[in-house]
Write a structure and sequence with these properties.
With about 90 residues, the chain is mostly helical. The protein is about 90% helix and about 0% strand. It is built from 2 helices and no strands.
């Protein structure tokens, strides 16, 4: 049962990362599309939209990397504890 949960956790991380990437792209596209209606330069609006997309995608992969790192630490701690338990017997 635990293995199924661990596999589903990996899939959940990828689903969340994909969702964050889609939302970053959508937000950046809406900034570019509707940014000209607000007072300001069109160039600043386009740059802001592209930066939103780039930073959103980057932060999504940082989230995924940190999540997988935490999963690796949990796995390492579990195997170390089991190894120490076997040695003490």
């Amino acid at each position: 049962m635990r293995e199924i949960l661990n596999k589903s956790l990996e899939m959940l991380i990828w689903v969340a990362t994909t969702f964050f990437i889609i939302m970053a792209c959508y937000t950046g596209a809406m900034i570019i599309r509707f940014g000209g209606q607000v007072s300001g330069s069109a160039t600043e609006t386009i740059i802001g939209g592209f930066l939103t997309i780039i930073f959103g995608i980057t932060m999504s992969f940082v989230f995924a990397g940190l999540s997988f790192q935490i999963m690796d630490i949990r796995s390492f701690t579990k195997h170390t504890a089991l190894g120490l338990k076997r040695m003490s017997k």
